[in-house]
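--- STAGE predict ---
source: upstream dedup step, 1 unique chain passed
mode: sequence only
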Amino acid sequence: KPPGFAGPAAPPLPSVEATLLPFLRQGCSLSFPVRPEKQAQGLLIVTSDDAMRKTFDELIRCRLVQSRFRVLADVSSVSADSPLTAGKALVERGKFFAVETPVSNHEEEEKVADFELQSAAMACPAFPSLQTALYTVTSKASTSAARQVRASFAMANAPLLFDSS
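--- STAGE serialize ---
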């Protein structure tokens, strides 16, 4: 899916569905088990029969389908208690957890995403006081995955400067 395209038809936007409709047999319809944001690009799962839709729904429910993002974060003001740090240093990998999910005594917190540091913190050439770091983030596939990743970095005091969702 190119950036700017919707998955299902959403006039007046260009859509994957509108592009594929001329190739469908009479009476077939398309299903989009995961609906990424309009500006996201990459592989889009599209099914044209109910059995395949149910199969993908089950794979997603079991978290076997994931979304992967590359993000550039402002790590200038990351605190010592952030999931991105251990003391004053950035950790190489870790997890973000849902903040608003209630936790009972028998349940674990819901994991939102795994992150992996791809570069050490670097000063931005145009703004030397701005420290940036590049991360790869993997999360369960969902319509709100990119929003959840952005919110997780923001709550860690590392707002995103760029993401390739």
